[in-house]
Amino acid sequence: MNMLNIWFIMKREFGGYFATPVAYVFIIIFLLLAGFSTFYVGNFFARGEADLYPFFSLHPWLYILLIPAISMRLWAEERKSGSIELLMTLPVSVFEAVLGKFFAAWAFTGLALILNFPLWITVNYLGNPDNGVIFTGFVGSFLMAGGFLAIGSCISAVTKNQVIAFVLSLIVSLIFVLAGYGIVLDFFSSWAPQPLVDAISSFSFLTHFDAISKGVIDLRDILYFAALIAIWLFANALIVNARKAD
Amino acid sequence: MTLRVEIEDLAKHFGEIRAVDGVTFSVSKGEVLGFLGPNGAGKSTTMKMITGFLAPTRGTVRVCGYDVSTDPISVKASLGYLPEGAPAYADMTPDSFLKFIADIRGLSGADKKRAVASAAERARILNVMYQPIETLSKGYKRRVGLAQAILHNPPVLIMDEPTDGLDPNQKHEVRTLINEMAEDKAIIISTHILEEVNALCTRNVVIASGKVVFDGTPAELEAKSRYHNAVVLTVNEIDNTKLLQFVKALDFVADAELLTLGNGIRVFPKASAHITIALSERIREQGWEIASLYAESGRLDEVFRSITLPSTAGVK
């Protein structure tokens, strides 16, 4: 594994976001939605507490919609334009290419996330929040974004069509979130044995993100996201290898 | 002669379809190998296997001594490749695109600058370096692809239809560039433009239905033509049919025919011999005056058809 190659591919891909208005449109929509949902859906003021829980708790839902929009182009576009033949005949390995692209998308999401800092300033201006909790919230949200991106990146390697990549990623992401949602779990718990319900719930982003967003750093939650990213990216590399020439 | 590319019994099957079926040839330094064949004959598939983009079903590829199945990275590092259609990252400018390629090729600092500048100059894209590639014309896009392929001065250069879709001037420029580089590289170009055989190549490999049907020099390829050394003869004073009768009776003539276009006849020698002088002497002996007389070198399009069609028909 050549780290420099990963870095060069990441740099190129990251620059690619800003070559078109896509990056700016995405960041603006992300900030608007995040802000809107925090104040209106999350009842930021009415709760009367100086924290960013309303902000973070809505991230899984935001990501379901927005992350596939970032990840859909990662491989589908390479395959459609034929540039994948160029990339895969340069002296780089598939894993380097997959990681480079993934890190670019992740860094971009991280940037969009950090640009929410005015909320952090607001809450510090209004009260005395626990900034440690807010920090872990950002870290957790970032980790979870990585999970969504790994799913989206893998799915984008399956098709040449970005719209299909978007829709499929959205559905798979939805499944991964909903697996921990109360209504879904209630549906299963009415007939399925408890271990199965727990298993389904333990696969959910919600279950693992909720604790982190409240400031509880559990190694298992971090491992969950790390393993999830690793598995999806591994599958991603296999798919790219198998389908690059189709 | 240093062998740079060695291909042995290379095959690629897509299910039932044998896209490439046991191709063997090699290319040395200083050679420009013209890889010919009809569309769908397996040219691109073969090139994709040489460059490590596709894994072969069977057979071996060695580039500069490295085996593509065991050491693909070394193979990819020692060759420059222009894929069919010259794909590139459309939203980048040639400048940033070439810098990215240079990074990946392990060039940095002054070397990187020099490599990018030299490739851009040789491919003649200096005037479009800061325009997004998607806004460039087809000819410029192709040249950006060329610049990318030659950037690291690779010992082996593989180009899939480098002049396809270019206008005659652009074709000429690309051929000039390839000729300039030919001396110290092993070059493989695929084409179905037959004029490039003479303009570019020192050797030709023709494939049809995934199999090699010819491997030799352009002259040898032309010699396979029925028209090779055929003589076109025009004599004004006598009737063409009479002339035809006379010529057919000569001992060194295999056959003769009336020209379909224009006035005169075409004379086919026995065993592709040179018969221009002998023929003109016999005509003069008759007291006839020759209006024009010239030998043909052979018709590549006819050779191309005759060696690629039978096997295509055989498969069906």
UniProtKB/TrEMBL annotation, chain A:
Molecular function via GO: ABC-type transporter activity
Record localization: Cell membrane
Main localization, broad class: membrane
Transmembrane stretches, start-end: 21-46, 58-76, 97-121, 133-151, 163-184, 222-242
Top-level lineage group: Bacteria
InterPro entries: ABC-2_transporter_component
Signal sequence residues: none
Gene Ontology CC, one term: plasma membrane
Keywords from the UniProt entry: Cell membrane, Membrane, Transmembrane, Transmembrane helix
KW Translocase (keyword) present: no
Membrane topology type: Multi-pass membrane protein
Protein name per UniProt: ABC-2 family transporter protein
Automatic annotation (TrEMBL), chain B:
Protein name in the entry: Putative ABC transporter ATP-binding protein YbhF
GO MF, one annotated term: ATP hydrolysis activity
Domain ABC transporter stretches: 5-234
Key words, A-Z: ATP-binding, Nucleotide-binding, Transport
Listed SMART domains: AAA
Family listed: Belongs to the ABC transporter superfamily.
SUPFAM superfamilies: P-loop containing nucleoside triphosphate hydrolases (SSF52540)
Top-level taxonomy: Bacteria, Pseudomonadati, Pseudomonadota, Gammaproteobacteria, Thiotrichales
Gene3D superfamilies named in the record: P-loop containing nucleotide triphosphate hydrolases
InterPro entries: AAA+_ATPase, ABC_transporter-like_ATP-bd, P-loop_NTPase
Organism: Methylophaga muralis
